[in-house]
Design goal:
The protein is an all-beta fold. The protein has no helices and four strands. The termini are far apart.
Amino acid sequence: MEKLSLIHLKVPDLYPYPYIIVTYSSKISYNEGDHLEVYGVYGYPFAIGNETPPKTVPSIKGACIEKV
């Protein structure tokens, strides 16, 4: 079974919603408040919340994630 990390990444200058969803093909260890650099490919917008229609945020399929 493949391990997958799903990260809700806050990007301060991103408008109108300062979040990006990052998927990564293996498990990584990180804590809330860590600073990360993510390299990858833009994915389809990711639906968040319970609204109808739901809000969507950008997503990235991570190829490399580093703590900085």
